[in-house]
Design a protein that fits this description.
- By secondary structure, the protein is mostly helical.
- The protein is elongated, with a radius of gyration of 27 Å.
- The N and C termini lie far apart (104 Å).
- The chain contains seven helices and no strands.
- Mean pLDDT is 81; it is low at 16-20.
- Helices cover 77% and strands 0% of the residues.
Length: 217
């Protein structure tokens, strides 16, 4: 019987640690979306503007000035839009925290406000969001301007804008996929690049069409 009891001792394989922490990539979603959106918007908007001007004018000065005007206007627009959006979100979260504090005071004791204090510390900062959005837009917008700023021939300049924008779009798509924890890096890059090509192509084509009707300067 003792031998039989010894044979019943079965060594089970080590079970995986249930407490092992898995990084939550969704925590990055908000700031990652804002950064990628801002940089991508700046890049595509300014590149498309430059393509549109280049469709009807040979003057490099007109293209560069239009690009910088778009950069200034777009950065201000992104900053103001992000500020208003995040401030609205902050107001909603503050109101929710106040309701939870009142509920805690009614149902428990006055000292049980740890959860509310933690939520107050994590409230979004509209000023930081506005600055980050404007900087991201500016970063994207500067790329086609720097690429084409020293090319005198119009056709070469347009090709340089398309090439530089394509490379930057692929980089943004890849960085966004890696930071987001997805394995579909190629799909992400392709989606962003094709979207940028469409924006530049449509802007170039429609501006060329308007210029051919006599509306061009």
């Amino acid at each position: 019987m003792a031998a039989l009891g010894d044979q019943c001792n079965i060594n089970l394989p080590n079970q995986p640690e249930e407490d092992e922490e898995v990084f939550d990539y969704s925590k990055r979603a908000q700031w990652l979306r804002a950064a990628i959106l801002g940089a991508n918007d700046g890049l595509v908007s300014i590149a498309s503007l430059m393509m549109g001007v280049g469709a009807v004018k040979d003057d490099i000065k007109a293209m560069i000035l239009t690009g910088f005007a778009g950069l200034f206007a777009g950065a201000c627009s992104m900053a103001i839009g992000e500020f208003v959006s995040v401030y609205s979100q902050r107001d909603i979260e503050i109101a929710q925290v106040k309701r939870e504090k009142i509920n805690n005071i009614i149902t428990t004791t006055n000292n049980n406000n740890t959860g509310g204090n933690e939520k107050e510390k994590r409230l979004p900062n509209p000023f930081q969001a506005a600055l980050a959005s404007a900087l991201a837009f500016t970063l994207g917008a500067v790329m086609p301007l720097l690429a084409a700023g020293f090319v005198t021939d119009r056709d070469v300049r347009l090709a340089v804008v398309v090439g530089a924008t394509t490379l930057a779009l692929a980089a943004f798509g890849g960085v966004g996929a890696v930071l987001g924890g997805t394995s579909r890096v190629g799909v992400s890059c392709g989606r962003v690049v094709v979207g940028g090509w469409m924006a530049m192509g449509i802007t170039f084509g429609l501006t060329k069409l308007l210029g051919s009707t006599g509306l061009g300067m």
